[in-house]
C-alpha cells in the first residue's frame, strides 16, 4: 500500500488554499479546530477531535522515499545573503562531478527560491508521473526540486504562512521521485522557523547526516549563526562544520586584499572555536562567484584557478571525509 | 468602519504619522542596515523628529547590534512595554526588537507562524510608541508569516503605510525583489521606491571600483517596473564596521545619562561615514515620495 501512490498533481502555489482557511492555526496547534478561522472549515471537526495532533500521516511515505537516499545534508545559516544557495549549488556540482554518484538538491526556501537561477535551470518545469514528480535534472546525476519550477512567472510571489509551506516541504520529500541518491542537499531559507522545523521533523526518522553552516565574517552574521548552532543542538542535528564566506576581497586591479566585512569579533574561525564546531574553511569574495550564480554556470568549472575555487574544493573534501 | 479602527494596534499607532516598511525578497542585502540608516537619517532630518524602529525579524534580529543596544532589557510600565531608546534621555529614537527579550544573545527563537504572529501583534499593540513622526519597520527576508501578520494587524492604519524595497544588483537578488514587489501590489501597499545596496566597492589600496555584486540592476528594474529609484549605495567598509561594532565597550557600567552621550556618538560617527551624505539624498527622495503620496 505504501509503495503504490497515485500520481500527485503539482500544486499551483498561487492558488487559494483548497483545504485550509487563510488563518489556519495548523493542525497540530492546540487551537486546531477551535480558532476563529476554523469556523466553517470542512476539517474543523477532525481538528477539534485531537486526532490531528498525532504524528504527521506523511511520515511513513517520507521514510519510504528517503530509504534510498544515503546521505542527507542541510545547508543552514542564520542570516540571509551569506551564500547558502551558492554554496549548495557548488557542493551539488562537486558531488555530481563523480559520475558514479547521484545527487539531489532540494530548495526549501519557499519565498525566495534562488537555486533554479544559480543552477541555470530557471525556466524548467516539473513533470508528474505515476512514480511522483520528476526533479529537474541539471545533468544526468544532479536532480533539483524547488518551488521556483512551479511558478508561472519568476516575478510571482509565494505568500504563504507556515502550514502551507510545511505541506509543500512534505510533498517535496514524499512525492518527488528522487530515486536512489548518494547525497541529498537541502538548501534552506534564513532563520530558524517553519521550514527548518518541518524539514527536521520529516527527516528525523530517516536520519540527517548533518548540517553545514554558512556565515560571513561580521558579528551581525555571527550572532545569527550562534542561534543556528543552538537550534541544531536543540533539535539534535550534528553540525558538520562552519564555512566563512565572503572572507576578504582581492582587488582585481592591484591584487591587494581587503576586508569588506570585517571580522570585528574574530570571524568564523573564532566562533567555531567558541562553540566547539569544526571550522571548514574561508572562501574569499570573488566578484565572479556572484556573476556565475547569475548566469547559472558552475564557478568551480569556469574559474578553476581562482583562490575561491581552491577554498571551495578544500571545504568540500572535508565535508566528504566526514560522511 | 469605526469598529475596525478601534483595535489595540490602531490605538497605539494613532499618533504615528508615517509607517515605512523596509522590504527585500532576499536576505543579506542590507535591509537592517538600511533601516538603521533610515532611522538615523530621519531623526537627523529635523531637531524635533521622533523616530521609532521596529525589528520584526524574529529569528534573526540584527537591529539591536547595529544600534549598539545589545543586551538592553525592555521595561514594563502600566502603559505597556517601554521601547529602548538609542539616544538615551533625548528619547527621539525608540527601538523594539525580539533581541531585547532574549536572555542570552545566542538564544535561538525557533517559532512557527502562529507564535510569530502573536509576537508581532504585541510589538504593535503593547509597545508604548507614543507620538512618532516615523516608524521604520525592518522585516525578515521573504514574503511570509511576518509580512502577512504585519499587514493584517496594521490594516486599520493602512493609509499611513508605505514600503521601501532594498536590493543588491545581482540577478538573484533582483528576482526576489521582483517577488517582493508583486507582494506589495497584492496587498496594495504603496512603494516609495527602490534602493540598490552594495553597488560597487572601492578598493582601499588603489581606489579602483569593483562591482562585487555587479551594478545598475536596481535602477534598471525600477525603470522597468515604473518605480521611483531612490539611489544606490556602495559597499562602505567603514559603515559595516560601525554598525557591526556599534556596541560601545564601556557602556554597561555607565549611568543612563552617559549612555545617551554614547548613542549620540553613534549618530556622529554615522554622519562622518561616506555613505551618510548619499543616504541623505535617499531620504530627500523618500520625503518627496511621501509628499507625492499625500497629494494623490
UniProtKB/TrEMBL annotation, chain A:
This is P-loop containing nucleoside triphosphate hydrolase protein. [4Fe-4S] cluster 1 binds at residues 24, 38, 41, 47. [4Fe-4S] cluster 2 binds at residues 251, 254. PROSITE patterns: MRP. Residues 1-28 are annotated as: Disordered. Component of the cytosolic iron-sulfur (Fe/S) protein assembly (CIA) machinery. Required for maturation of extramitochondrial Fe-S proteins. The NBP35-CFD1 heterotetramer forms a Fe-S scaffold complex, mediating the de novo assembly of an Fe-S cluster and its transfer to target apoproteins. InterPro entries: Mrp-like_CS, Mrp/NBP35_ATP-bd, NUBP1/Nbp35, P-loop_NTPase, YlxH/NBP35. GO terms for biological process: iron-sulfur cluster assembly. The gene is NBP35. Its main location: cytoplasm.
UniProtKB/TrEMBL annotation, chain B:
GO terms for cellular component: cytosol. InterPro entries: Mrp-like_CS (IPR000808), Mrp/NBP35_ATP-bd (IPR019591), NUBP2/Cfd1_eukaryotes (IPR028600), P-loop_NTPase (IPR027417), YlxH/NBP35 (IPR033756). GO terms for molecular function: 4 iron, 4 sulfur cluster binding; ATP binding; ATP-dependent FeS chaperone activity; hydrolase activity; metal ion binding. [4Fe-4S] cluster binds at residues 203, 206. The keyword Metal-binding applies. It comes from the Eukaryota. The keyword Isomerase does not apply. Its main location: cytoplasm. PROSITE patterns: MRP. ATP binds at residues 25-32. Keywords: 4Fe-4S, ATP-binding, Cytoplasm, Hydrolase, Iron, Iron-sulfur, Metal-binding, Nucleotide-binding. It is found in: Cytoplasm. One of its GO terms (biological process) is iron-sulfur cluster assembly. Component of the cytosolic iron-sulfur (Fe/S) protein assembly (CIA) machinery. Required for maturation of extramitochondrial Fe-S proteins. The NBP35-CFD1 heterotetramer forms a Fe-S scaffold complex, mediating the de novo assembly of an Fe-S cluster and its transfer to target apoproteins. Belongs to the Mrp/NBP35 ATP-binding proteins family. NUBP2/CFD1 subfamily. This is P-loop containing nucleoside triphosphate hydrolase protein. It comes from Cristinia sonorae.
Amino acid at each position: 500500500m505504501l509503495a503504490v501512490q497515485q500520481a500527485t498533481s503539482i500544486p499551483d502555489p498561487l492558488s487559494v488554499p483548497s483545504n485550509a482557511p487563510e488563518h489556519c492555526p495548523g493542525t497540530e496547534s492546540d487551537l486546531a479546530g477551535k480558532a476563529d478561522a476554523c469556523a466553517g472549515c470542512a476539517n474543523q471537526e477532525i481538528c477539534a477531535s485531537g486526532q490531528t495532533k498525532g504524528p504527521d500521516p506523511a511520515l511513513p511515505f517520507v521514510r519510504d522515499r528517503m530509504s534510498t537516499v544515503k546521505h542527507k545534508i542541510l545547508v543552514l545559516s542564520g542570516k540571509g545573503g551569506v551564500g547558502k544557495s551558492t554554496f549548495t549549488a557548488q557542493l551539488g556540482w562537486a558531488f555530481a562531478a563523480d559520475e558514479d554518484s547521484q545527487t539531489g538538491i532540494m530548495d526549501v526556501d519557499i519565498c525566495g527560491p534562488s537555486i533554479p537561477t544559480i543552477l541555470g535551470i530557471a525556466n524548467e518545469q516539473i513533470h508528474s508521473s505515476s512514480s511522483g514528480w520528476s526533479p529537474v535534472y541539471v545533468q544526468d546525476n544532479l536532480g533539483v526540486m524547488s518551488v521556483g519550477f512551479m511558478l508561472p512567472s519568476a516575478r510571482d510571489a509565494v505568500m504563504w504562512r507556515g502550514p502551507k509551506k510545511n505541506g509543500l516541504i512534505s510533498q517535496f520529500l514524499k512525492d518527488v521521485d528522487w530515486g536512489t541518491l548518494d547525497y541529498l542537499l537541502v538548501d534552506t531559507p534564513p532563520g530558524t522557523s517553519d521550514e527548518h522545523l518541518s524539514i527536521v521533523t520529516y527527516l528525523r526518522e530517516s536520519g540527517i547526516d548533518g548540517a553545514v553552516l554558512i556565515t560571513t565574517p561580521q558579528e551581525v552574521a555571527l550572532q545569527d549563526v550562534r542561534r543556528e548552532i543552538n537550534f541544531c543542538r536543540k533539535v539534535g542535528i550534528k553540525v558538520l562544520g562552519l564555512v566563512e564566506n565572503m572572507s576578504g576581497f582581492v582587488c582585481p586591479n592591484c591584487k591587494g586584499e581587503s576586508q569588506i566585512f570585517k571580522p570585528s569579533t574574530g570571524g568564523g574561525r573564532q566562533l567555531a572555536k567558541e562553540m566547539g564546531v569544526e571550522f571548514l574553511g574561508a572562501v574569499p569574495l570573488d566578484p565572479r562567484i556572484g556573476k556565475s550564480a547569475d548566469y547559472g554556470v558552475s564557478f568551480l568549472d569556469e574559474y578553476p584557478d581562482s583562490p575561491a575555487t581552491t577554498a571551495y574544493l578544500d571545504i568540500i573534501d572535508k565535508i566528504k571525509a566526514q560522511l | 468602519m469605526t469598529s475596525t479602527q478601534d483595535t489595540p494596534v490602531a490605538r497605539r499607532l494613532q499618533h504615528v504619522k508615517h509607517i515605512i516598511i523596509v522590504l527585500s525578497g532576499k536576505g543579506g542585502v542590507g535591509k537592517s542596515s538600511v533601516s538603521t540608516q533610515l532611522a538615523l537619517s530621519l531623526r537627523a532630518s529635523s531637531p524635533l523628529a521622533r523616530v521609532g524602529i521596529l525589528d520584526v525579524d524574529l529569528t534573526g534580529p540584527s537591529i539591536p547590534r547595529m544600534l549598539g543596544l545589545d543586551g538592553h532589557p525592555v521595561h514594563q510600565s502600566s502603559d505597556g512595554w517601554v521601547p529602548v531608546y538609542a539616544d538615551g534621555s533625548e528619547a527621539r529614537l525608540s527601538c523594539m526588537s525580539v533581541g531585547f527579550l532574549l536572555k542570552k544573545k545566542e538564544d535561538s527563537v525557533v517559532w512557527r507562524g502562529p507564535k510569530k504572529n502573536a509576537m508581532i501583534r504585541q510589538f504593535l499593540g503593547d509597545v508604548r510608541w507614543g507620538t512618532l513622526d516615523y516608524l521604520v519597520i525592518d522585516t525578515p527576508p521573504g514574503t511570509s508569516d511576518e509580512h502577512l501578520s504585519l499587514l493584517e494587524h496594521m490594516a486599520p492604519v493602512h493609509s499611513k503605510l508605505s514600503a521601501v524595497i532594498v536590493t543588491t544588483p545581482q540577478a538573484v537578488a533582483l528576482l526576489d525583489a521582483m517577488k517582493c514587489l508583486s507582494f506589495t501590489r497584492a496587498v496594495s501597499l504603496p512603494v516609495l521606491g527602490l534602493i540598490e545596496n552594495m553597488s560597487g566597492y572601492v578598493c582601499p589600496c588603489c581606489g579602483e571600483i569593483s562591482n562585487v555584486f555587479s551594478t545598475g540592476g536596481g535602477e534598471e528594474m525600477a525603470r522597468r517596473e515604473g518605480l521611483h529609484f531612490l539611489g544606490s549605495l556602495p559597499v562602505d567598509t567603514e559603515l559595516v564596521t560601525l554598525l557591526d561594532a556599534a556596541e560601545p565597550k564601556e557602556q554597561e557600567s555607565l549611568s543612563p545619562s552617559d549612555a545617551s552621550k554614547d548613542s549620540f556618538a553613534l549618530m556622529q560617527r554615522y554622519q562622518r561615514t561616506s555613505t551618510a551624505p548619499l543616504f541623505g539624498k535617499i531620504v530627500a527622495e523618500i520625503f518627496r515620495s511621501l509628499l507625492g503620496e499625500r497629494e494623490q
